[in-house]
Design brief:
346 residues, alpha/beta, 36% helix, 17% strand, binds adenosine monophosphate, binds manganese (II) ion
Length: 346
């Protein structure tokens, strides 16, 4: 109750929560329920979706698919999440489910080819926490103050009368830990720690979950990291003197080390530790001339503004987009836009 009283105005309205509960109660028991999270899913996308799926299962929902667009490659750190048995590849997804619920996707485009299911369903509910989310569902539960989509998922489960069990909690915890950088970022509010406390109280082992999710990778992946970090470049003059560090990782790098694509995602973390740079850029090859670009700032730059200008999105200090050309061209494009998105005068 106090939580409701102190929630900021941009959080979902009471009417939105009620509408979400109503449409789920109406359609989920008898209809086919399709849960979709964003392409190239991270811990929040998969964790909030699978945690919610397990909650629906507790309510007796049996006809349910959970999925994400594109190549069906579940990153190894999430391969043991409870509820992964519900995951189906894009090709097997029902053409016309009655209810669609999306997770951690700021726009329908983040659902790839599965976005068409939104228009075919009788009901759609969007769960998200990106400020840029304009609300592409019938019911939109978008809370830009929430540290992760799993915060929204936990509240909706509570309003549906689903008690937390250890399996649901593990999924929601992985999601929360992922998006807060293991409870290190500024959005790690009292509300985040209160939620973590509720989740851990179900019997979770945070050490084991963190090790499995963030601190485990194959030996060859470590060798790959060494190569990619060795080719990092520092541009101290960029971002009005706040500095920019960048590096890239190619499909050939992955092949030489026998690694899967997901290992590239964790590389942004060592890159963004560089003291001399506010902005970190990681350019990850996903096609011949196509790259997934990760942007991070320590506070001087609104990198979501940079990402949006280049066709992507994200949060103020963590954003991304799909880039084309060479890594050098991509870094140059980012570098030229950064001065337009400074958060404080230099
Ligand atoms: P990443 O660098 O992949 O960890 O993504 C950081 C943030 O940027 C996340 O909030 C993503 O949702 C967002 N993001 C990444 N890539 C894209 C994209 N191509 N379009 C829109 N948002 C993105
Ligand atoms: Mn995400
Ligand atoms: Mn998220």
């Amino acid at each position: 109750m106090t939580e409701l009283a102190t929630r900021r105005p941009s959080a979902p309205a009471e009417a939105d929560w009620s509408a979400a509960v109503a449409v789920i109660r109406e359609l989920a028991p008898a209809g086919r329920v399709l849960l979709i999270c964003h392409v190239n899913p991270d811990g929040d996308a998969l964790g909030s979706m699978l945690g919610f799926a397990l909650g629906l299962r507790q309510l007796g929902v049996t006809r349910m698919q959970a999925t994400f667009p594109g190549v069906f490659d579940v990153p190894e750190p999430f391969a043991e999440l409870p509820g992964v048995d519900l995951l189906v590849p894009e090709a097997e997804v029902w053409a016309d489910p009655e209810l669609v619920i999306t997770f951690d996707a700021a726009a329908a485009s983040r659902l790839g080819a599965l976005a068409d299911r939104l228009s075919r369903a009788r009901g759609t509910v969007v769960l998200d926490h990106h400020a840029s989310n304009a609300g592409f569902g019938g019911v939109n539960l978008v809370d830009p103050q929430a540290a992760a989509t799993s915060v929204v998922a936990e509240e909706l489960l509570a309003r549906l009368g689903v008690p937390l069990d250890a399996a649901i909690a593990e999924c929601l915890y992985v999601a929360l830990a992922t998006d807060t950088g293991s409870f290190k970022f500024d959005m790690t509010t009292p509300r985040v720690h209160e939620m973590a406390a509720r989740l851990i109280a179900t019997g979770l082992r945070p050490g084991e979950i963190s090790r499995r999710t963030f601190d485990t990778r194959p030996f060859e992946a470590v060798k790959l990291f060494a190569e990619v970090l060795a080719r990092a470049e520092l541009d101290p003059a960029a971002a009005a003197g706040h500095g920019l560090v960048s590096t890239y990782v190619t499909q050939d790098d992955l092949a030489r080390h026998g690694q899967r694509a997901y290992v590239m995602d964790a590389l942004i973390d060592p890159v963004r530790t560089v003291a001399e740079a506010d902005v970190a850029v990681l350019v990850k090859q996903i096609g011949e001339q196509t790259w997934a670009v990760s942007l991070r700032s320590k506070g001087a730059v609104d990198v979501s503004g940079v990402a949006v200008a280049l066709g992507g999105g994200g949060h103020r200090l963590a954003a991304g987009y799909t880039g084309h050309g060479t890594p050098a061209e991509i870094v140059a494009a980012v570098r030229s836009l950064v001065p337009d998105h400074l958060l404080s005068p230099s």
